[in-house]
Specification:
The protein is mainly alpha-helical and 294 residues long. The chain has two domains: 80 residues, no CATH class; 177 residues, Hypothetical protein af1432. It is built from 16 helices and no strands. Helix 11 packs antiparallel against helix 12 and helix 12 runs parallel beside helix 13. The longest helix has 27 residues.
Length: 294
């Protein structure tokens, strides 16, 4: 997404602005002109260094220490419940050594992505805040669930945060339709219809691997059943489902035990509220992850 985008022009009133917007988004998807956000520079640099076999922790420190916020975040995560050791990590080098290169790469991307969810437009800001908070909750739950499923927790956290990235270009388009932007139900319907496809386009453009691309593409595809073995997209579906428990929106979802992803994952028994029983005992860990990113 450009650093200084031109202020959007207001589209002339139409008898059906929703159809106008759909035509615009569909056309830009087909011809490849849809404006996609860019992964923040610090995340790109960290991913580049992490991919080089001849580079190591000192090289990562050199890149990451340029961003004090990211440095603080990595030290904080390295001292969290999941990584805690007898002695706390006091320096960035100690934190990276404890986390490992792969986790440092994924956690750096997770931290950097949150900057994309902040815009000055007041109407859009509210939508982005809600989307980001659900993504953070999903990622935090996925981080806790991943260890039970023999998946990488920090990769699961990143996957939870990127699944809604496709909402960003949609909301940028909506700036041109003030009346439509004010209708929360229609905006939600548009995001649900297009966000998955656009997320996949963005993640491909960022050169993320196929497994992460599929997480975005399969967003809220509750009855997804692509293969016998569970994958990262299945884990994220179950984690996201839990963010709706306690909300009225959960009434429109299939029961958790009927979701193929849940049946494939070794996540234990349900509690009386139709959620995973072990999540209650892991509440502190989930909340610590959320607070680090909100």
């Amino acid at each position: 997404m450009p650093t200084n985008p031109k202020p959007p022009s207001i589209v002339r009133a139409s008898s059906d602005p929703q159809k106008d917007l759909l035509r615009q988004v569909t056309a830009s998807l087909k011809d490849g002109s849809l404006e996609l956000p860019s992964l923040p520079d610090v995340a790109l640099e960290v991913r580049s260094v992490a991919a080089e076999r001849d580079l190591g922790i000192s090289d990562l420190v050199t890149v990451i220490q340029q961003d004090p916020g990211l440095s603080t975040y990595l030290i904080k995560v390295s001292n969290s419940v999941y990584y805690r050791r007898a002695k706390p990590a006091l320096t960035l080098a100690q934190a990276i050594s404890r986390l490992g290169v792969s986790s440092t790469r994924d956690l750096s991307s997770s931290y950097a992505i949150r900057t994309l969810f902040f815009m000055r437009n007041k109407e859009i800001k509210g939508y982005l805040r809600d989307i980001w908070q659900r993504s953070v909750y999903t990622g935090s739950l996925a981080h806790v669930m991943a260890e039970r499923c023999n998946m990488a927790p920090d990769r699961a956290l990143l996957a939870g945060l990127i699944q809604d990235i496709g909402a960003l270009p949609l909301l940028m388009h909506l700036e041109k339709y003030p009346a439509l932007l004010a209708d929360r139900d229609k905006v939600t319907a548009l995001i649900n219809q297009y966000s998955g496809k656009i997320s996949a386009l963005i993640l491909n453009a960022w050169h993320f691997d196929d497994e992460l691309v599929n997480v975005g593409l399969e967003r809220e595809n509750w009855l997804r059943d692509k293969r016998p073995q569970a994958d990262l997209a299945d884990l994220i579906l179950v984690a996201r489902y839990h963010t709706y428990i306690g909300e009225t929106a959960v009434r429109g979802l299939p029961p958790l035990f009927q979701i193929p992803a849940f049946r494939k994952l070794p996540l234990g028994e349900l509690d009386p509220e139709e959620g995973l029983a072990f999540i209650k005992t892991a509440k502190a860990e989930v909340e610590a992850m959320r607070q680090a990113l909100v």
